């Protein structure tokens, strides 16, 4: 069975998929192929560079570098959470470790053939999402590897949760000593819960009504157009009470977690009259071409699932009880990340 590895990258974004690689930092260490002695050699190198660092931190960093250089093999699977839109990319490792001296950052690299890009987090179990929420940069996915392996060859909307039993092995000491900050984990769980609820518990028409109510919570007047005879416009919004003062906002809603392409955004843009604004709302994400249209066309805004979740959390108390009842949330006090 192929090993499944999680890699977090908060520095590089679209270039990872565009250029087909996975990468990590610690560029100052230099080419890892020139550091002999396995884990102990890496620890010695890091101690030399960072003499004031704690032994536990040095051991953790050495473990990450060792996994990326030696333990990941060609044919293994990479699961890479994509922070800009909180989706997940999955690919297959196609090359050995390499050190790219020409790269400005993240010179430690492995070639990857990305098989699934922009997968919604809603298609995976919460337990699997917890596992890839590790605070480590490079880590072995053990308990729920089967879910990510199944996702490689299936469409994002049809990934089935499998019950395949995955062999369990004892994790490295370093993997046990570095946990995700408590506050970050609670926040991510809350965001996943909100998005999953909006996707699983709402019908497409419910979603239109929810978006209208969300806009109302932001201070707009909003109403849903006649269902199935709306000409592509699902919600009409405006600031004034009567709806006679510009701008009028035309909203299209897509109750899906996949990627919206440029043709759909183009269609919405075509409905704009003089002085009108357009808003696209979906629980998924948008293609690069769709984002390009947003930049090129004045008065159009694309809301992703993560954008909608952020608005829900910021204006939760202003939402009607109907929506708060299906996604009950309460404020809590937790240990701040900086204190852990």
Binned, the helix content reads 25-40%
The average pLDDT score comes to: 87
Distance between the termini: 36 Å
Number of strands: 14
The gross shape turns out to be elongated
**Helix and strand string, N-terminal first?**
EHEHHEEEEHEHHHHEEEEHEEHEHH
* Radius of gyration over all CA atoms, rounded: 23 Å
Sheet with most strands? 7 strands, mixed
**What's the total helix number?**
12
Q: Roughly what fraction of the amino acids lie in strands?
A: 15-25%
Low-confidence stretches: 156-179
SS-based class: alpha/beta
Characterize the structure shown:
The chain has helices at residues 14-19, 38-49, 55-71, 126-131, 145-152, 173-177, 182-200, 204-217, 262-269, 288-296, 305-314, 321-326; strands spanning 4-7, 21-24, 77-82, 87-93, 98-99, 108-119, 138-141, 221-224, 235-238, 249-254, 259-260, 277-282, 285-286, 300-303. It is α/β, with parallel strands linked by helices. The strands form three sheets. Strands 1, 2, 3, 4, 5, 6 and 7 form a seven-stranded mixed beta sheet that branches. A five-stranded mixed beta sheet has the order 8-9-10-12-14, with helices on both faces. Helix 2 (38-49) crosses helix 3 (55-71) and helix 9 packs parallel to helix 10 (288-296). The longest helix is centred in the middle third of the chain and has 19 residues, at 182-200.
């Amino acid at each position: 069975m192929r090993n499944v590895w999680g890699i977090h990258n908060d520095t590089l974004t679209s270039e990872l998929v565009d250029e087909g690689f996975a990468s990590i930092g610690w560029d100052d260490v230099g080419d890892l192929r020139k550091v002999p002695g396995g884990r102990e050699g890496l620890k010695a190198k890091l101690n030399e560079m960072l003499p004031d660092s704690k032994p536990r931190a040095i051991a953790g960093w050495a473990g990450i570098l060792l996994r990326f250089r030696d333990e990941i093999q060609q044919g293994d699977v990479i699961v890479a959470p994509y922070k800009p839109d909180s989706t997940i990319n999955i690919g297959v490792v196609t090359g050995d470790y390499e050190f790219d001296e020409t790269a400005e950052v993240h010179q430690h690299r492995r070639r990857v053939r990305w098989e699934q890009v922009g997968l919604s987090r809603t298609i995976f179990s919460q337990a699997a999402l917890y596992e890839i929420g590790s605070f480590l940069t490079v880590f072995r996915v053990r308990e729920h590897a089967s879910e990510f392996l199944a996702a490689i060859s299936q469409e994002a909307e049809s990934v089935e949760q499998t019950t395949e039993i995955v062999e369990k092995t004892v994790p490295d000491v370093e993997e046990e000593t570095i946990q995700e900050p408590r506050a970050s984990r609670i926040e991510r769980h809350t965001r996943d819960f909100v998005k999953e609820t909006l996707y699983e518990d709402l019908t497409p028409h419910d979603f239109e009504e929810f978006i209208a109510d969300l806009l109302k919570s932001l201070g707009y007047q909003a109403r849903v157009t006649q269902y199935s005879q709306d000409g592509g416009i699902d919600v009409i919004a405006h600031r004034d009470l009567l709806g006679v003062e510009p701008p009028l906002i035309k909203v299209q809603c897509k109750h899906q977690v996949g990627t919206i392409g440029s043709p759909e955004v183009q269609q919405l843009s075509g409905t704009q009259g003089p002085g009108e604004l357009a808003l696209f709302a979906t629980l998924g994400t948008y293609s690069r071409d769709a984002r390009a249209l947003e930049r090129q066309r004045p008065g159009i805004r694309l809301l992703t699932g993560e954008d909608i979740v952020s608005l829900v959390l910021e204006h939760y108390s202003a939402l009607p009880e109907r929506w708060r009842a299906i996604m009950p949330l309460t404020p809590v006090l937790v240990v701040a990340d900086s204190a852990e």
